[in-house]
Amino acid sequence: MIAPGAVFRRDFDITHTPMFHQVEGLVVEEGQKVSFANLKSVLEDFLRYMFGDVKVRFRPSFFPFTEPSAEVDISCVFCKGKGCRVCKHTGWLEVLGCGIVD
What we know:
three-stranded antiparallel sheet; single chain; alpha+beta; 16% helix; 5 strands; two-stranded antiparallel sheet; globular
């Protein structure tokens, strides 16, 4: 199941707006357990399809509705990972959060 839509939040600062768009994806597999390795593979393929030849990294994170959880970054598409104002000179852009719903 894929569900795109608008998201509203209270916090507003230089890097966050009160409204943005988000896509939720959910895979339900009867009789077979979907692993984090499956999730990682699908997301890596999707990100390379969307952004081209980028490096992808998964960082452990916490979301109360998934376990395990991760945040995913790609190498900055503007500076090719060298560091610029867009990526705050880190070479990385955070693009999504993910996890397994049990």
